[in-house]
Write a structure and sequence with these properties.
heterodimer; A: mainly alpha; two-stranded antiparallel sheet; about 75% helix; about 0% strand; globular; B: mainly alpha; MetI-like fold; 12 helices
Chain lengths: ~290, ~300
C-alpha cells in the first residue's frame, strides 16, 4: 500500500514538473517570437536599405519623378509636423494631467474625462485624418498644410502625453506636497514650484514618445498635410509638405516604376525607423535612469 | 480672499483643459456625422450597412459596405487568434517567469515593437512577407487576408502584452505565496491563481488590442489586397474599412456622395471604437482588481 501511494505521488510529481516545464517553454517561446519579429523587420530594412543611405540621399530632394535623388523634403516635413504636434499636445496634455492628478476628486466627471481620453487613444488614425480634413482643412479653411497636419497629429498624440504626464505627477511623493502646503503655500504655488519641477524630467519622456508617434503616423496626415511631391522646402506653416511615412507609402504603391525604386523605399523606411526607434530608445534609457535616481 | 479667488480661477482653468478631451471627442463625432449623414439621403442605412456591392465610382454607384465591414471583422478576428495567445503568454513570461535581467531587455523590445510605424510594418508585409507567402503557398497574390492578419497581430501584441503584464504584476504577492505554500507548483499557481486574479486586466488588454487592429489603416491599406468583396478563404484579398477611406478619399470629389459615404464609414469605425472602449471600461470598473478579495 505504502509503496503504491508513493509511486502515484512520484508519478504525479513527475507529470506536474513536466507540465510546468512545457508551459514555461511555451511562454518563453512567445516572448522570443516578439523579439524575433522586431529583429527580422530591422534586419530586412537594414540589409536592403543600407546601400541607399548616403549624404546625398539625406540632403537632396527627389528628382526624375521621384525615381532618383534624396528625401530631404520628407525629413524636413516630418520634423516640422512632429514638432508642431508636440507643441500642441504637450501644454494641453500636461494641463489635463495636472487637473486629473492634482485637482480632481473621483466622480462622474473624472470618469467621463478618462473615458474620453481612452477613446481618443483608440480612435483610428484614418478617422483623425477625416476629422482633420473636415475641421481644420475645410471648416477652418487652413487647407492642406503643416498647421492642419500638426493640429491633427497634436490631438492624436494627446492621450500619450496625458498618460505619461499623469504617471510623472503620480511619482512625485505626497510628502513634497504636504511639506509645501504646510509651509503656507497655496495649491497653485505647490503645483508650480514643487510638483511640476519634480515631475518635469519624466514628462520630457512623454514628449519624446509623442514626438516619435507623430513622426511615424501616416493616415492622419494623408488628407491634412502631406503631398506626393514638393520640390521646394516649405516657406510657411500654411504650405503642404512631403513626409517620410507618406513618401514610403507613395513610392511603394503609386510611384512610377515601383520595382526600380525599391532601394529608395527601403532607404526611406530605414531613415524613418532610425528616427522613431532612436527617439524611443532615448526615452526608454532616460526613463530607466530617472527611476534609478529616485 | 483675493488669493482664494485666484486659486479658484486656476482650478477652473485646468478643469477646462481637461474637459477639452471630452470636447475633442465630441467634435470628432460632430464632424464625422456632419459630413457622413448626407449619404443617407441617397441610400438607406440598411442598404448602406448590409449592401454587398461597393462600387462608389460606377454609374449608378453602389454604396454597400458589408464587404468592407466583414473584411475588417475577419482581419481583426484572425489577427486576434494569433495575437491573443502570443500577447498573453509573453505578458505571463515577463511578469512571472523572466529573470529581472531578461525582463530589462524583453520589455523594451515589446515597447519598440509597439513604436514601429504602421507604414513600415505595411511595407515589410508588402515586400517581404507577400512574395514569401505567394511562393510558399502558390497563391495568385501574397497581399491577402492572411498576410494582413499576420501583420496586424504584431501591431496588437504590444497593446495586449503591456496591459496584461500590468494586471499580472499587480496581483498581490500573498496570493502567489499562499498558493505555493499549499504545494502548488509555479505553473499551477499561474493558471489557478494569478491569471484568474488578473483576468479583468487581461480582458481589457485583449479588447484594446483588437480595437487597435480594427482601426489600423496603413497595414490593411498596403497588405490586404484591396478587393471589395466578401472573402471566401483565408487567402483572398480584402478591403477593410480603414483601407477604403485612405485609398479613396483622394479621388472622391469634395461633397460628393462618395465623399459622404467615406465619412459614414469613419462614423462606423468611431462607433466600433466607442463600443470596444465601453466594454473595456465596463470590465475594468465592474471587476476591478482590489487585491485578494477579487478571487
Amino acid at each position: 500500500m505504502q509503496r503504491d501511494s508513493e509511486l502515484v505521488f512520484n508519478k504525479s510529481t513527475l507529470g506536474r514538473n513536466l507540465k510546468e516545464h512545457v508551459f514555461f517553454s511555451m511562454f518563453r517561446a512567445a516572448a522570443v517570437i516578439n523579439g524575433l519579429a522586431l529583429l527580422i523587420i530591422l534586419f530586412f530594412l537594414i540589409k536592403n536599405g543600407w546601400s541607399a543611405i548616403s549624404w546625398e540621399f539625406l540632403t537632396k530632394p527627389p528628382v526624375d519623378s521621384m525615381t532618383k535623388g534624396g528625401i530631404l523634403p520628407c525629413i524636413v516635413g516630418t520634423v516640422y509636423l512632429s514638432i508642431g504636434a508636440v507643441a500642441i499636445a504637450m501644454p494641453l496634455g500636461i494641463g489635463c494631467a495636472i487637473y486629473l492628478n492634482e485637482y480632481a476628486r473621483q466622480g462622474l466627471i473624472v470618469r467621463l474625462i478618462r473615458f474620453a481620453i481612452n477613446n481618443l487613444a483608440g480612435v483610428p488614425s484614418v478617422v483623425f485624418g477625416l476629422f482633420g480634413l473636415a475641421f481644420f482643412v475645410t471648416w477652418m479653411n487652413l487647407g492642406v498644410s503643416i498647421v492642419s497636419g500638426a493640429l491633427t497629429l497634436g490631438f492624436l498624440t494627446l492621450p500619450v502625453v496625458i498618460g505619461t504626464s499623469e504617471e510623472a505627477l503620480r511619482s512625485v511623493p505626497d510628502t513634497y506636497r504636504e511639506a509645501s502646503l504646510g509651509l503656507g503655500a497655496t495649491k497653485w504655488q505647490t503645483i508650480s514650484r514643487v510638483v511640476l519641477p519634480a515631475a518635469f524630467p519624466s514628462m520630457i519622456t512623454g514628449g519624446i514618445l509623442s514626438l516619435s508617434r507623430a513622426a511615424g503616423e501616416t493616415a492622419a496626415i494623408m488628407f491634412t498635410a502631406a503631398v506626393f511631391f514638393n520640390r521646394q522646402l516649405p516657406d510657411s506653416i500654411m504650405d503642404p509638405v512631403m513626409a517620410l511615412p507618406y513618401h514610403i507609402y507613395v513610392l511603394a504603391t503609386a510611384g512610377t516604376r515601383i520595382e526600380e525604386t525599391r532601394h529608395l523605399q527601403y532607404g526611406t523606411a530605414l531613415v524613418l525607423i532610425a528616427l522613431v526607434l532612436g527617439m524611443n530608445l532615448i526615452a526608454i534609457v532616460y526613463r530607466a535612469r530617472l527611476r534609478r535616481r529616485v | 480672499m483675493k488669493r482664494q479667488k485666484k486659486e479658484g480661477l486656476i482650478r477652473s482653468f485646468f478643469f477646462i483643459i481637461a474637459f477639452m478631451s471630452i470636447a475633442v471627442l465630441l467634435l470628432i463625432l460632430f464632424f464625422l456625422v456632419k459630413a457622413g449623414v448626407p449619404i443617407f439621403e441617397k441610400v438607406s442605412v440598411g442598404e448602406f450597412v448590409f449592401g454587398t456591392y461597393w462600387y462608389p465610382t460606377a454609374s449608378p454607384p453602389d454604396f454597400g459596405i458589408l464587404p468592407l465591414i466583414l473584411a475588417s471583422v475577419f482581419v481583426t478576428l484572425c489577427s486576434a487568434v494569433l495575437a491573443v495567445p502570443l500577447g498573453v503568454m509573453t505578458a505571463i513570461y515577463l511578469a512571472e517567469i523572466a529573470s529581472p535581467r531578461l525582463k530589462e531587455i524583453a520589455k523594451p523590445a515589446v515597447e519598440l515593437l509597439a513604436s514601429l510605424p504602421s507604414v513600415v510594418i505595411g511595407f515589410f508585409g508588402m515586400v517581404v512577407v507577400a512574395p514569401f507567402l505567394q511562393e510558399t503557398f502558390d497563391l495568385a497574390t501574397g497581399l491577402n487576408l492572411f498576410n494582413a492578419s499576420l501583420m496586424l497581430a504584431f501591431m496588437s501584441v504590444p497593446t495586449i502584452c503591456t496591459i496584461s503584464e500590468d494586471a499580472i504584476s499587480s496581483v498581490p504577492r500573498e496570493l502567489k505565496e499562499a498558493s505555493l505554500a499549499l504545494g502548488a507548483n509555479r505553473i499551477e499557481s499561474i493558471f489557478r491563481v494569478i491569471v484568474p486574479a488578473s483576468i479583468s486586466g487581461i480582458s481589457t488588454g485583449v479588447i484594446l488590442g483588437m480595437a487597435r487592429a480594427i482601426g489600423e489603416t496603413m497595414v490593411v491599406l498596403m497588405v490586404a489586397g484591396g478587393a471589395a468583396m466578401i472573402p471566401g478563404s483565408l487567402f483572398d484579398p480584402v478591403r477593410p474599412m480603414p483601407a477604403s477611406i485612405a485609398a479613396e478619399m483622394a479621388e472622391a470629389p469634395f461633397q460628393s456622395a462618395h465623399y459622404h459615404a467615406l465619412f459614414a464609414i469613419g462614423m462606423i469605425l468611431f462607433v466600433f471604437n466607442l463600443l470596444f472602449n465601453s466594454i473595456a471600461d465596463y470590465i475594468s470598473h465592474k471587476h476591478r482588481q482590489v487585491g485578494a478579495a477579487t478571487l
